[in-house]
Amino acid sequence: MGGSSLPVDLINDYLNGDPYLHPLRDYALPAHLNSDDLLVVSSFSGNTEETLAALEAGLGKGLSIVILSNGGKLREIAERRSLPFIPIPDCIQPRCATGYFFASLLGILEKTGLTGMHEAELAALAQFLESRRAIHEALGQEIAAQLKDKLPIVYGTPGFEGVVRVWKIKINENAKVQAFGNVFPELNHNEMVGWTRLVTNPAIIYLKSSRIDPRNAKRMSVMESLLSGKMPFIGVELRGSSHLEEMFDALAVADYATFYLAKAYGIDPAPVAMVEDFKKRL
Fold first, then answer.
1. Domains and CATH numbers, the chain
2. 19: cis peptide before it, omega within 30°?
């Protein structure tokens, strides 16, 4: 759930569904699971009730289980039952631990023989992100200024569905405002029509990959020409020598953009007070 599940979408983007990780954002496991299936149980706090319920169900089905957590009840269960456990380092919030979760999931897939080795790509990614830190911050500040008092709508293309989702959620949690996202070409068949009559004050963020299918690039251009008089379009050109680098290039910009948007609204980006209040009321 929440920030602890975001890396699953990113893994599926990166590996292009080979293998495909089926995200479960609910209490109940799918009925068809059996002892041949691997259940990865992921909760930063280790106390997320949906995650604990799924773990209990997985134990009952005799599934192979790996646990990722910073601690909490999940760590206690892992130690008591001698289950494989990957500790996630301390972070301000689960959404800040995306890199740790992402690398851990890749490690699990490598150890189980479901994918090849990715250490070299991860090492190159770390250097790439460090080299572009100042650029990410400057671009984030610029985007935040354009998003102030707007409803952010994040649009991307196949291969970046998870990145779009993370952008949307970072805006929700860091800037504490509404945001939505979708992916070409599907949005041209339905959502686009919803912009005929505006009842909001939107700004569209285009995540533009150099690896985009030319047909989707044309779709983005045509849609912008149709709607540019109704709302601003903010193009984010993704950089990097690989798909992985482009993905995390976009995520780094999102971190800075949402941090500075929170600052523009005079709020602390870290806490999620409504989530904590909600949990207390359950």
1. 2-117 (3.40.50.10490), 131-264 (3.40.50.10490)
2. yes
